[in-house]
């Protein structure tokens, strides 16, 4: 008899534990998703509905706020600037960062540890602050208020990630593959382009997307370095004080959408990237 | 090409780039902070530190970091262990939980503004439940506590994901055998977490905490969206020195103070969570 009751108890306990566990998972998912849903409701409501009280908890699918956003002076060009800067950042950080990632994964050279330290150091540094002196420097060189100038600063933000991520990606490809290509008559360069590059391309794309998101989201340096050619974040920050609510929410929504898509696109690589970065 | 030279050629672009856009501007900030006109002086630091807003913004930044980072650490650890034993739906849950990673601090501030503003969803919910007759203005100077809570919630919502990703990657590196051995010796799940997961996770905890703490001192756009001038923080003060007051030297001095605080905390975390020499997984 006693054996039966002691058997039943752990089973009940396990079942209860399972329910608590599932409830916690659902609750934590809701914690992330519900605020996003609220933003969606506000974006898909007419400007009047956004400013009224109380709020409906279902979207009205009214495009009033979004059209207001699109017609607001300077908003679309700010959106365009954001895309240009982020695209430049993406290209620059991969072109500059990937060779270093390859070097770190394939060679032992003097100063390797010092180089890694420099890369990691940039991470533990409030980088947007560097925008302050660069503002003066850019005025002298004519880079002030240009997409390229801001992209250069954003590249500084993205480069440590680009190097560490490509380092971990290249480390995942056995050097034997390259060596086999060399014995079959490839040079170092052709072995790289014909063997390594096709294997690494999806990963490179993921880290490029990561660089894009870093630039797309950056607020402080963008606000310091652009005046006429504001990016979307800088423009929204500037109008926070006086802008009507529906403009803020529509702008916030536009900021969030690419992030959702990009995180989905790179989700497979997120954890591989950080696993190696820890070492 | 010469195999001995090749690595240096490959790291040259990054080194040059960081020298021009990281080390050089860093030197410029330092120079700007320590000069007025052409002479060396500590006057900028004195000016900045004696300004009436400095103690408040320093206190606010610190309080916010102290309130937010421990909650994020606990939450990220909980989520990471939950994901670790998940079989079905792991990818979907992880995707949902890492969504905030891609969301900018400005957008996060705006999202929580939709909840806390006077005609927002929190007020709608409370009036729907009959808790209030009139919508309450949470984000006003009469409710400093609510402003703080709103900013803290937005920060926790936004930036837990970065710690989660680092910790999930770290837990994935811990060999299963350790857990099996612990189980054979009769360790409860809680003991396994305390005695196996936490110690072996130390390098990841280090990375996650350093990154998060440094970013917590840089909090800016969330505060700008939710608190405006109600809740002054250090980064916001730098911004207003640079733009509203056009005082680049003071902005640089304050920037160096933020940097100094970041470095001190980085060193403290490195020391507190140091990995014993020779101990690897």
From TrEMBL, chain A:
Chief localization: membrane
One GO term (biological process): transmembrane transport
Domain of life: Bacteria
InterPro entries found in the cross-reference section: BP-dep_ABC_trans_perm, MetI-like, MetI-like_sf
Residues annotated as transmembrane: 20-44, 83-105, 117-139, 151-175, 195-216, 245-266
Annotated keywords: Cell membrane, Membrane, Transmembrane, Transmembrane helix, Transport
Domain ABC transmembrane type-1 intervals: 79-266
Membrane-topology annotation of the record: Multi-pass membrane protein
GO cellular component: plasma membrane
Family in the record: Belongs to the binding-protein-dependent transport system permease family.
Name the record gives this protein: Carbohydrate ABC transporter membrane protein 2, CUT1 family
From TrEMBL, chain B:
Localisation: Cell membrane
Listed Pfam families: BPD_transp_1
Residue ranges of domain ABC transmembrane type-1 in the record: 58-269
SUPFAM superfamilies linked to this entry: MetI-like (SSF161098)
Keywords of the record: Cell membrane, Membrane, Transmembrane, Transmembrane helix, Transport
Membrane spanning stretches: 5-27, 62-80, 92-115, 145-174, 209-231, 251-273
CDD domains assigned: TM_PBP2
GO biological process: transmembrane transport
GO-annotated cellular components: plasma membrane
Family note: Belongs to the binding-protein-dependent transport system permease family.
Official protein name in the record: Carbohydrate ABC transporter membrane protein 1, CUT1 family
Organism taxonomic ancestry: Bacteria, Pseudomonadati, Pseudomonadota, Alphaproteobacteria, Rhodobacterales
């Amino acid at each position: 008899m006693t054996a039966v009751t002691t058997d039943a108890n752990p089973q009940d306990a396990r079942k209860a534990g399972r329910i608590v566990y599932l409830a916690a998972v659902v609750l934590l998912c809701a914690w992330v998703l519900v605020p996003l849903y609220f933003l969606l409701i506000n974006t898909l409501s007419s400007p009047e509905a956004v400013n009224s009280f109380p709020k409906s908890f279902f979207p009205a699918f009214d495009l009033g706020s979004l059209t207001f956003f699109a017609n607001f002076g300077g908003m679309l060009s700010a959106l365009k600037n954001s895309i240009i800067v982020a695209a430049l950042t993406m290209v620059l950080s991969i072109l500059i960062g990937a060779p270093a990632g390859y070097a770190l994964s394939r060679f032992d050279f003097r100063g390797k540890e010092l180089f890694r330290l420099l890369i990691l150091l940039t991470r533990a540094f409030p980088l947007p602050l560097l925008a302050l002196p660069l503002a003066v420097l850019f005025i002298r060189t004519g880079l002030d208020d240009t997409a390229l100038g801001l992209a250069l600063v954003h590249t500084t933000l993205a480069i440590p990630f680009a190097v560490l991520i490509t380092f971990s990606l290249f480390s995942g490809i056995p050097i034997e593959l390259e060596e086999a290509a060399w014995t079959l008559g490839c040079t170092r360069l052709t072995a790289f382009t014909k063997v390594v590059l096709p294997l690494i391309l999806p990963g490179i794309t993921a880290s490029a997307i990561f660089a894009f998101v870093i630039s797309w989201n950056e607020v402080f340096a963008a606000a310091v370095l652009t005046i006429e050619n504001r990016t979307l974040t800088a423009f929204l920050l500037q109008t926070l004080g006086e802008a009507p609510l529906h403009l803020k929410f529509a702008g916030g929504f536009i900021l969030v959408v690419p992030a959702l898509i990009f995180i989905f696109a790179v989700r497979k690589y997120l954890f591989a990237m950080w696993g190696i970065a820890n070492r | 090409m010469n195999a001995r030279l090749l690595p240096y050629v490959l790291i040259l672009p990054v080194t040059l780039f960081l020298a021009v856009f990281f080390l050089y501007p860093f030197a410029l900030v330092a120079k700007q902070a320590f000069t007025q006109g052409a002479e060396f002086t500590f006057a900028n630091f004195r000016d900045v530190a004696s300004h009436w807003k400095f103690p408040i913004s320093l206190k606010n930044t610190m309080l916010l970091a102290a309130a937010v980072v421990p909650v994020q650490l606990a939450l990220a650890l909980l989520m990471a262990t939950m994901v670790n034993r998940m079989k079905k739906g792991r990818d979907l849950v992880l995707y949902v939980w890492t969504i905030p990673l891609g969301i900018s601090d400005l957008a996060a501030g705006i999202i929580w503004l939709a909840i806390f503003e006077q005609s927002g969803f929190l007020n709608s919910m409370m009036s729907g439940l009959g808790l209030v007759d009139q919508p309450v203005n949470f984000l006003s100077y009469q409710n400093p506590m609510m402003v703080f809570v709103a900013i803290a919630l937005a920060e926790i919502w936004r930036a837990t994901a970065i710690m989660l990703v680092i910790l999930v990657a770290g837990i994935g590196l811990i060999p299963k055998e350790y857990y099996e051995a612990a189980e054979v010796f009769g360790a409860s799940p809680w003991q396994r977490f305390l005695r196996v997961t936490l110690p072996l996770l130390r390098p990841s905890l280090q990375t996650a905490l350093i990154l998060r703490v440094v970013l917590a001192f840089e909090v800016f756009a969330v505060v700008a969206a939710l608190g405006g001038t109600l809740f002054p923080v250090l980064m916001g003060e730098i911004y207003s020195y640079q733009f509203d007051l056009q005082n680049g030297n003071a902005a640089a001095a304050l920037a160096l103070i933020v940097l100094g605080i970041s470095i001190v905390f980085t060193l403290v975390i490195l020391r507190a969570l140091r990995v014993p020499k020779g101990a690897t997984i």
